[in-house]
Amino acid sequence: MKADCRLYLVTPPALEPAAFAVQLATALDAGDVACVQLRLKDVDDDAVRRAIDALRPVAQEREVAFILNDHPRLAKEMGCDGVHVGQTDMPYREARKIMGGDAIVGVTCHDSRHLAMVAGEDGADYVAFGAFFPTGTKETEHRAMPELLTWWQEMMEIPCVAIGGITPENCGDVVRAGADFLAVVSSVWQHPEGPGAAVRAFNKAIAEA
User: Fold this and answer.
1) Gap between the Cα atoms of 161 and 182, Å rounded
2) Helix (H) / strand (E) containing 36
3) Whole-prediction pTM value?
4) How far apart are CA 116 and CA 129, in angstroms?
């Protein structure tokens, strides 16, 4: 059983880049974070570019990978470390072609063993499973169970990310089941004591699991 589970921060669906850069720095300085995914909804490419310009240096200066959701061409153009594609976005192989061999390309696999196997065989750098818990961030169509992570770990070497309503209080089961990364959104940015406190709480919970 691996205890080297790490945090994968996902940005809120709407943000003001300059103000959020300060919050992001606070979160990253509070403890161990593996990567940050910029996930903006319903904005144009220029808004995405502005957000990348503000946030990418914050992550990369701290040696935290900066991943863009759903826009391989923009990710490549703007110097992101990788891209994350969903099942309804661009296919993995196309995203890989745009990003090149050195970039991180991750794939959403919901609760599907089949989708995960396909992504893994195609060469994805990680697969994301979820949602594990009810979440307010997006509508939950797929519910994943912790044993899915255990099955994946027994089958494949490729890291897996758990997402969906994960908090410091409930993450233990998912960590013990074999998640390599915990993708978290509102439990960090809406934490009553701020994002730094949330990162510390998650790191403590991961260590204790």
Assistant:
1) 6
2) strand 35-38
3) 0.96
4) 8
